[in-house]
Structure formats: structure tokens, C-alpha cells
């Protein structure tokens, strides 16, 4: 065990090929492999210090005392792995633009996995860090790496982890993130994906077509074929949202403004001939994949139509790492 505090930083990631369903709920083994882009703009810094004087874990989020059973459960996993019983102080700061509503479990559990394991005296490889982060939140397995990352589904705890696809990108792409609503999601990812696995009549079709999408997007990334990457991204996101519409009970994450932005992105592409493609996760915010050089023009058009929404540009980001507190 380490007596000094350890701080780690991890960035959030946005899936281009979505993870939407678990095979094993406890170990967080997914139904399909997924692929994401890590973003520089949104990240979490987490400091962990084990302290013999504590009778339980003490967790603060953005300087305020916080309770999170997922964090306690995760710390129990770290203690088991390290063979220790000591509790810890965990201080987490989410760096997101004001009222972003993007505070993501991906950056949170990737930063916690790195800081807590090192503070507990473990010296994990990135593969094992990814496996550990996965136990906190599936998407966190991908935030261990920067750039394009694939979470290979595997079949058990040993074989389900993320690998870098292209970590240091020589490609000026990025995402414009439009915050439609920064409030709590209507239905958590965890509950939503479980309902879908159990009830959607389209689920087998999703698995088949997502497997194809993953193969095709990796090829398109290798070929630097932006149009192809964008087309697959948009289509894969819509297929995920179609699962939600087909579940029992059905649900969706769209707000009227989300749909208006999606239509406008399609119009910009078709009428203004600027390549850009949207994706949405378990909430109403719209992320637009585009080239860095096109971002200002897209931003200007969107600002003229949706003056109450800010669109922030995020470049590809780095993987999880240790920093000075
Ligand atoms: C993803 N999303 O691939 C998918 C696509 C949103 C839509 O937020 O239950 O928070 O903790 O493993 O990782 C994934 O949900 O869910 C997610 P858990 P997680 O990014």
C-alpha cells in the first residue's frame, strides 16, 4: 500500500460503435465489442489515499461529500485485488464545461481504477487497468487509452478489455458537443440496456449488424475515410436508439431539440456539403463528428439556428495517466 496520495486523470470517450447490453451483469461482460474516440475536453481527476484511521471510504465529488454505492463496490474490488482491508479517501473533480451534463462514468472509473490500484500498491499493466475499470462501468474500460479504442468483448473477466486502435492520431478529426439538457438522464444506461437485452425483438439483428459495423469502421479509420467513418457512426447510433424504441416498455432519450439538431446536421451535409455526422448516447445531447477545419463553419451555422445551445469542440484526447495533484 502507498502512504502518499496518488492522482490520476482520465478523459471521457464517445462510442462510434455502441456498447448496449451485457452478457454478465456482475462482471460487466458486454454482448458486443465497441469502439470509441477519447476526447481531450472532458476529464476527471481523482486522488486516492488509503488511511488506516478510516472506518469507511470517504468520497468527495467536486469538493462536496458524495455517496455512491458503485464507488464503494469498486473500492472493495481494489482491496480484494491488493489483499488489503484499509479504507481510503477518494477526491474526484470532474472537468467539464459549465452545466455540461456529460459527467461520465467512463472518465470517472478509468481515473479511479488508475489512482486506487496504484495507491493500493498494485502496478497494473494497461490491459489489467482496462479490465479493472470495466468492473466500475463498461465504457470506462475504453478510457484507459487515447484516440480510437476498441473494447474487445471477450467472454470472461480475463478476456474482456480495451485495446488501442490508433492512440496518437495524425488525423484532425474531433467532435462538436451540443448540450441540449444537462439534467439527469431519464433512464440510466444500465437499466436501459438491460431492458433492451431482455425484450427487444431486434436484439439479434443489432448484434449481427454491429459486428459488421465494427469491422467496417476499423477499415475506414485505417484508410482515413472520414465519410465512411461518419456514415457508420451515425447509422450505428440510430440502430441503438431503435432498440430502445422496440423495448418493452419502450423508452427513448431524444428531446425535440435533439431531433432538430440531428435534422440540421443532415441538412448541412446535404445542402452545404460539409461532412458531419451525429451520434447520441443515453441522453439528449448531440455529438457531431467532423474535421477540425470544418468545425468553425458548422459551429456558425448551428449557432444561428440554435442560439440557446453552445457547441463545444473537442479534439481526440489521451489515455489515463498519473499526474501531480
Ligand atoms: C457506450 N453508453 O458505448 C454506450 C452507448 C451510452 C450509449 O453510457 O452499466 O455507463 O456502467 O457498464 O458504461 C455505456 O454505459 O454502463 C454508455 P455500465 P456505461 O458508451
Would you mind describing this structure in some detail?
The structure is a single chain. The protein is of the alpha+beta class and 325 residues long. It has two domains: 6-170, Ribosomal Protein S5, domain 2 (2-Layer Sandwich), CATH 3.30.230; 173-314, Alpha-Beta Plaits, CATH 3.30.70. It has helices at 69-82, 105-119, 126-136, 189-199, 203-222, 226-245, 256-271, 295-305; strands at 6-17, 22-24, 29-30, 34-50, 58-61, 64-65, 88-95, 148-152, 161-166, 173-178, 276-280, 286-291, 311-314, 321-323. A hairpin with a 5-residue loop joins strand 11 and strand 12 (286-291). The chain is globular. It starts with 5 loop residues before the first strand and ends with a strand. The model has no long low-confidence stretch (mean pLDDT 95). Bound molecules: ligand 2P0. The site of ligand 2P0 has 14 residues, from helix 4. Pfam families: MDD_C, MVD-like_N. Residues 10-162 form the Diphosphomevalonate decarboxylase-like N-terminal domain. Keywords: ATP-binding, Lipid biosynthesis, Lipid metabolism, Lyase, Nucleotide-binding.
Amino acid at each position: 500500500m502507498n502512504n502518499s496520495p496518488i492522482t490520476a486523470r482520465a478523459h471521457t470517450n464517445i462510442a462510434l460503435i455502441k456498447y448496449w447490453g451485457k452478457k454478465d451483469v456482475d462482471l460487466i461482460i458486454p454482448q458486443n465489442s465497441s469502439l470509441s474516440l477519447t476526447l481531450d475536453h472532458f476529464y476527471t481527476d481523482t486522488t486516492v489515499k488509503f488511511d488506516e484511521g478510516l472506518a469507511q471510504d470517504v468520497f468527495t465529488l467536486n469538493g462536496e461529500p458524495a455517496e455512491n454505492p458503485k464507488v464503494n463496490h469498486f473500492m472493495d474490488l481494489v482491496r480484494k485485488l491488493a489483499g488489503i482491508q484499509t479504507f481510503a479517501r477518494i477526491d474526484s473533480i470532474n472537468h467539464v464545461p459549465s452545466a455540461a451534463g456529460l459527467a461520465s462514468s467512463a472518465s470517472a472509473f478509468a481515473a479511479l481504477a488508475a489512482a486506487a490500484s496504484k495507491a493500493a500498491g498494485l502496478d497494473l499493466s494497461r490491459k489489467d487497468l482496462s479490465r479493472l475499470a470495466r468492473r466500475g462501468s463498461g465504457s470506462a474500460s475504453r478510457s484507459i487509452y487515447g484516440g480510437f479504442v476498441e473494447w474487445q468483448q471477450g467472454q470472461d473477466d480475463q478476456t474482456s478489455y480495451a485495446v488501442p486502435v490508433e492512440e496518437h492520431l495524425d488525423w484532425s478529426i474531433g467532435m462538436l458537443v451540443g448540450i441540449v439538457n444537462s439534467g439527469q438522464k431519464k433512464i440510466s444506461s444500465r437499466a436501459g440496456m438491460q431492458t433492451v437485452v431482455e425484450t427487444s425483438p431486434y436484439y439479434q439483428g443489432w448484434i449481427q449488424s454491429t459486428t459488421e459495423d465494427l469491422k467496417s469502421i476499423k477499415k475506414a479509420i485505417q484508410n482515413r475515410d472520414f465519410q465512411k467513418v461518419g456514415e457508420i457512426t451515425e447509422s450505428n447510433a440510430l440502430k441503438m436508439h431503435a432498440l430502445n424504441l422496440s423495448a418493452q416498455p419502450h423508452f427513448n432519450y431524444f428531446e425535440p431539440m435533439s431531433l432538430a439538431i440531428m435534422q440540421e446536421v443532415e441538412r448541412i451535409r446535404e445542402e452545404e456539403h460539409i461532412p458531419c455526422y451525429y451520434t447520441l448516447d443515453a441522453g439528449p445531447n448531440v455529438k457531431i463528428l467532423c474535421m477540425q477545419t470544418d468545425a468553425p463553419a458548422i459551429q456558425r451555422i448551428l449557432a444561428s439556428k440554435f442560439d440557446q445551445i453552445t457547441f463545444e469542440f473537442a479534439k481526440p484526447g489521451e489515455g489515463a495517466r498519473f499526474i501531480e495533484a
